[in-house]
Design brief:
Blueprint: H1 15-31, H2 35-43, H3 51-66, H4 68-75, H5 88-103, H6 108-123, H7 125-140, H8 155-159, H9 164-174, H10 176-185, E1 193-196, H11 203-212, E2 217-219, E3 226-229, H12 239-242, E4 246-248, H13 251-254, E5 267-270, H14 277-285, E6 291-296, H15 299-312, E7 317-321, E8 336-342, H16 356-359, H17 365-381, E9 384-394, H18 403-412, E10 416-418, E11 438-440, H19 442-445, E12 450-457
Parallel strand pairs: 5-6, 5-8, 6-7, 8-9
Antiparallel strand pairs: 1-3, 1-4, 2-3, 9-12, 10-12, 11-12
Length: about 450
């Protein structure tokens, strides 16, 4: 990073925050790095001890990624050469500067001066002068992002801030109206949602603790142990999190494990278990009295899962390093009452929370993932005993990863039937589809987008 002042905050933050945001975005843009990982590393720097700086850094990175398509189109009239032909740092400095001017209340002086200062320190006076000229031109033009006219093929990619290939995929699965509503919802900042962990705390007691700490807890609409925190704290320094009192978990994710109605004495396979949010939820719903095998392909992610299990105190969980896309877990044939396949997917259901994912989307991505998903589903099915249940889910709204995977599986497994979602399921009634599946959406339910199918073995 180019700028390292020790202190001195301006009206909208300091140049060090802009430098860090631009650097994170340049990594994501140039190397296709994962924004949450790179941002988390940046936030752990002691220079960002001030909560205001941490908040601003997060806002600049995630906000710019959500609005990148709109910003890139709005920058066109102010550039003499294509944006992609500029240096990655300078390109993302323009985006960060424009994001502040278009979408925040940061004073123009701070947005301009501190962004330009970061660029000058990192890339020199010439680059700083270029960024300064473009941002000042935006101010003179009124700080309103200009969009293509209605009917122009560029309109929805700019307005919905998503690449054309992704919009085409969404439209095929959802239709144009639903795609517009979905993209609009994904431009909003997602809520900070947590699940109370009953092995460490009573839900009501956690709510009181959050309230006493001034974090503005509000109960989730559907998930009985979920809260939305109006003023969250960084989890790596939060005592309640470190004590295992709660897990950070979207409300939609909290509605998946209840589909299986886990009970005491049951054997349950979690086929793609890491990092462990749903695994520990299965344990909690079974009052800690189920036997759960948590399998995953990654040793690193399994280590993360074990850390979550230790922190939350969830009993009955054993881990298995195994790739279920290649073969069934051995020995497992017919040994499990229930199985959860939280399948790896394109992740297009969580683009409001991980907006960098939409800029990595490739047209062949859903097809490639569907092959992996079908293999995992097929091999996990081997573990389920006759009469048992399997829940298949993804955090994708694309039919190619969802209904089409399930349809192919049912065609090859005549003993499998779609089971009714349990009446006790706490989620919204309109999430139940006509064909017996589950679909959650941010624009309808305020959750990330999830698909789930409950299958019973004959």
């Amino acid at each position: 990073m180019g700028v390292r002042p020790r202190s001195a905050r301006g009206d909208g933050g300091t140049a060090i925050v802009r430098d860090a945001a631009i650097s994170v975005l340049a990594r994501v843009d140039r190397d296709e790095a994962f924004a949450d990982i790179v941002l988390d590393r940046a936030l752990r720097d002691p220079v960002f001890s001030d909560p205001r700086d941490r908040g601003l850094l997060t806002e600049l990175v995630m906000g710019t990624l959500r609005r990148r398509g709109t910003i890139d189109f709005a920058l066109l009239p102010f550039l003499s050469r294509p944006l992609e032909r500029t240096d990655a740092y300078v390109r993302n400095a323009l985006r960060v500067g424009a994001y502040q001017l278009f979408y925040t209340r940061i004073p123009d002086r701070a947005a301009l001066n501190e962004t330009v200062a970061a660029v000058k320190a990192a890339r020199g006076g010439g680059a700083g002068g270029f960024v300064n000229a473009v941002l000042r031109a935006i101010v003179r033009a009124g700080k309103v992002p200009v969009l293509p006219p209605e009917g122009d093929a560029r309109r929805l990619p700019a307005e919905g801030s998503a690449p054309r290939d992704l919009i085409d995929a969404f439209t095929t699965s959802l239709g144009e109206a639903e795609t517009r509503a979905y993209l609009a919802a994904c431009l909003e900042k997602p809520p900070f949602t947590v699940r109370a962990n009953p092995f460490r705390v009573v839900t009501d007691a956690l709510a009181m603790r959050f309230a006493d700490e001034g974090r503005g807890p509000a109960p989730c609409r559907f998930a009985p142990d979920g809260f939305i925190l109006g003023k969250p704290s960084p989890v790596f320094s939060d005592a309640a999190f470190l004590e295992g009192a709660y897990l950070v978990m979207d409300e939609g994710a909290q509605l998946i494990a209840p589909l299986l109605l886990p009970g005491p004495g049951e054997r349950i396979l979690d086929a793609c278990a890491a990092p462990g949010g749903k695994t520990t939820h299965l344990s909690a719903l079974a009052a800690g009295k189920a036997e759960i095998i948590a399998a995953d392909i990654s040793a690193l992610r399994l280590r993360m899962l074990r850390e979550v299990v230790t922190r939350t105190g969830a009993p009955g969980i054993r881990t298995a390093l195994h790739d279920l896309s290649r073969a069934p877990l051995t020995p497992s044939s017919g040994l499990f009452d229930k199985a959860l396949v939280d399948a790896p997917c394109t992740g297009m259901g969580v683009i409001r929370r991980n907006p960098d994912a939409k800029w990595r989307f490739r047209p062949d991505g859903p097809r490639r993932m569907a092959r992996v998903q079908a293999a995992i589903l097929r091999n996990a099915w081997e573990a389920v005993k006759p009469g048992g249940l399997l829940a298949y889910c993804t955090c994708s709204p694309l039919k190619e990863e969802n209904e089409e995977v399930v349809a192919g599986f049912l065609a090859d497994h005549p003993g499998a039937v779609v089971a009714s979602l349990p009446s006790e399921w706490p989620g919204p009634s309109d999430a139940r589809t006509a064909d017996g599946f589950l679909r959650l959406y941010p624009h309808r339910h305020g959750t990330d987008a999830f698909f789930a199918a409950l299958l019973r073995k004959g």
